[in-house]
Amino acid sequence: MQTTEAIPIAPRARSFNPYWEAFRRLRRSKSAIVGTTILALLGFAAIFAPVLSSYDPTLPLIGVENVTKRGPPCIHLLGCPSDQPEHYFGIDGNVRDVFSRVLYGARLSLIIGLTTVSFAIVIGTGLGLLAGYSGGQADNIIMRFMDVLQAFPSLLLAIAIVTVLGPGLINALLAIGIVEIPTFARVLRASVLSIKELDYVSASRALGGSSLHIMLRRILPNALTPLIVQGTLGIATAILDAAALSFLGLGAQPPTPEWGLMVGQEYKNIFNAPHLTFFPGIALMLTVLSFNLLGDGLRDSLDPRLAQKGFEGRV
Amino acid sequence: MIQYIIRRILYSLPVLLGIVFVTFTLARVLPGDPCRAVLGEKATDQVCDAFIKRNGLDKPIPTQFVIYLGQVLKGDLGDSFRQGRSSVAILAERLPVTIELAIAAMILATIVGIPLGMVSAYWRNSPLDVVTMVGANIGVSTPVFVLGLLLEYLFAIILKDTFLRLPPSGRLTSGLVLPSLAQAWGLTNLTGAGATTIGFLSKLYIFNALVTGHWEILADVLKHLILPAAAVGTIPMAIIARMTRSSMLDVLGLDYVRTARAKGLRVRQVIFRHALRNAMLPVVTVIGLSMGGLLSGAVLTETVFNLAGVGRTLYESISARDYTVVQAFTLVIAVFYVSVNLLVDVLYAFLDPRIRLS
Fold first, then answer.
1. Does the pLDDT of residue B72 top 50, yes or no?
2. Of these four, A42, A132, B85, B274, which has the most CB atoms within 10 Å of its CB?
3. Which of A151, A260, A271 lies at the smallest CB-CB distance from B19?
4. In a 10 Å sphere around its CB, with 0-12 CB exposed, 13-18 middle and 19+ buried, how is residue A256 labelled?
5. Are B197 and B191 in contact (CB under 8 A)?
6. 3 state DSSP class of B79
7. How confident is the model at residue B116 (pLDDT cuts 50, 70, 90)?
8. Residue A5 DSSP code
């Protein structure tokens, strides 16, 4: 007689969820943690700007308070006489509170980054999908056009476009959005090319799926990873370029509390009022840094194949 | 190899044509009336008609494009509406500033970035590596104009009374004069292309001071160049350092490197003779790609440091609606950028035979 032995049953493995897996890797990434923390602080500053500062970002304090034009920061805890009004980041050339301008600037910068990149992603994704999926002439025409767009240094092209459209924040955003399109079109096209020959796409086609259905429901969801990474890094570039345009006077117009514009209006006073360049400059740097760090972390966790590579793809 | 180069050049032609088309279109759709922008609001219709006729602005757009294309091929980039002289002459005057700035920035970025990346890769995860990589991240995130201004404040104000003091703006200390090469070589009766070329070379202050032996002026020019070059060079430096690190790490993990170590070669020999050359491939690409960013950075840096270079001029011409100058400058910048990319591809193929064979 044969004895039967109980076959040990392995504990049921938790079903594998790639998103959960990616999130676990993301939590381990130091750069993602630092990036998210800075971003959370910025988000907090942006949302609660009216609570954190009692001053209006655009209203001059002439006749309201006894403060001097381009006055240095005054913090009571750091020895500023308590009979003087407290201004953490000082007063600007139009006698406004710089701290509240920097806080409100966070709103603007985050909005700028998100809107321009969303615009570029929508158009770039469309073009990239079309080029990669249809191939042939369409691919050739679209990609050569992208080549031409990329043959101009990004800021110079943005300057040229703003010149045609006229200066202003909305036009500057449009210009930066246009300049960023080729990056996304390229990224998406590359993914599409590698995906469209896979069996499950052929299967969908054999089942009678339309081209649009295959592109949007079968290919796009599987090409999202590089797009998310590139999108996050693209936000950093967009904020930098928008600030540069405003610095040159082509973007946001006074009295908008935009960081680039704040530096642009006061940079000639760097020798007697460095705080007017320093605070908006540091705010800009931190914002861009947070998106760069988050982008790096996302790349490492979402796409392990790309891990270890730096920001070489976007110069 | 030659076949590969020819193929790459042919590939660039449509892009170049596209660039000419885009710059042409941009200049045509610029808002505002070029005539009144140049001659003033009070110009009469009659005067304006003559102006438009003289500059060929009355012909159909396609005809204007063909005429423009023919002129470009002949090296004639048109006359500035505003200054009444040729765009090429203006370019010859402004380009040297930007060339010096770009070269200095690139040299700085390369000679600092590559060793930093190598050190970081070799002592991976050491405090040195962490500091370098955090620094690289901050470097790539700082707006060029903010960095320029902060450097200016640090070296011209805070360190004013030390030997580290550096001038905050301009190319030369006022009072110092660098004679043009035409004067130095006694070529005062040159005209046309010769005069433009000599003028261009004279404005390359470093070159001029070197060949004419004005050492004091050379030192002064270099001192003025340090801060703007550091401002423009920081982003490429950060990118190069990071790229060198990651590519060095890839290479150091390969079998042939281990073999080289195993047969008893010293670490230094393995790194410099075996690993570095292969690790440099992606770095070369990154250096080439950075040239575009360098030009964008130049516009901002030239503004901050008050330098009359290409970027500054382009920006001023756009504000003044000086079509032809805008066209000429964008064209030259884009062509330069495409050529650099071409050069990078060729260099890449030279370094890696697999590319030119595929």
1. yes
2. A132
3. A151
4. middle
5. no
6. strand
7. very high
8. P
Contact yes or no for A286/A35 (Cβ under 8 A): no
Gap from B28 CA to chain A (nearest CA, Å) = 9
ipTM of the complex: 0.84
Taking 70 as the threshold, does the pLDDT of residue B272 lie above it?
A: yes
* A151-184 per-residue burial string, b: 16 or more CB within 10 A, e: under 16: bbbbbbbbbbbbbbbebebebbbbbbbbbbbbbb
Q: Does A31 touch chain B (CB under 8 A)?
A: yes
CA angle A159, A164, A166 (to 5 degrees): 85
Give B321→chain A minimum CA distance, Å: 9
Cα Dmax for chain B: 86
Instruction: Please list, residue by residue across A198-218, b when 16 or more beta carbons sit within 10 angstroms of its beta carbon and e when fewer do.
Output: eeebeebeeeeeeeeebbeeb
> What six digits make up the tokens of A75?
């913090």
* Residues listed for chain B: 358
B288: which 2 tokens? 């080439």
Q: What is the pLDDT of residues A122-167, one digit of tens each?
A: 999 999 999 998 888 989 889 888 888 887 788 888 888 887 788 8
Residue B145 pLDDT level (bands cut at 50, 70, 90)? very high
| 3-state SS class at A210 | coil
- Distance, in Å, from the CA atom of B277 to the CA atom of B256, rounded to the nearest integer, reads 13
CA distance A290 to chain B (A): 9
Q: Which of B146, B294, B296 sits opposite A277 (nearest CB)?
A: B146
Contacts of B32 in chain A (CB under 8 A): none
- HSE-CB at A132 with a 13 A cutoff on CA atoms is 26
Give the model confidence (pLDDT) of B170-201 as tens digits. 888 888 888 888 787 877 777 777 888 888 88
Task: Tell me how far apart the alpha carbons of residues A117 and A119 are, in angstroms, rounded to a whole number.
Answer: 5
Predicted confidence band at B241 (pLDDT cuts at 50, 70, 90)? very high
Q: Which of B17, B125, B296, B317 to mutate to test binding with chain A, by most A CBs within 10 Å of its CB?
A: B296
Residue B233's identity, in one-letter code, is G
Q: Give dist(CA B70, CA B85) in Å, integer.
A: 19
Tokens 């914002």 belong to residue: A287
By CB atoms closer than 10 A (0-12, 13-18, 19+), residue A48 is exposed
- End-to-end C-alpha distance for chain B, whole angstroms: 12
Whole-angstrom CA distances from B55 to B68, B76, B324 are 11, 14, 10
Give me the torsion for CA of A21, A22, A25, A27, rounded to 10°: -110
Contact A267 B18 (CB under 8 A): no
Give the number of A-B residue pairs with CB atoms closer than 8 Å: 160
Q: Which residues of chain A are under the pLDDT cut of 70?
A: 1-16, 303-315
From A151, A244, A311, residue closest to B145, measured CB to CB = A244
Both tokens of residue B27? 């200049």
Tokens found for residue A257: 């509390």
B291-348 per-position pLDDT tens digit: 777 877 888 899 889 888 888 888 788 777 777 787 888 888 888 888 888 887 788 7
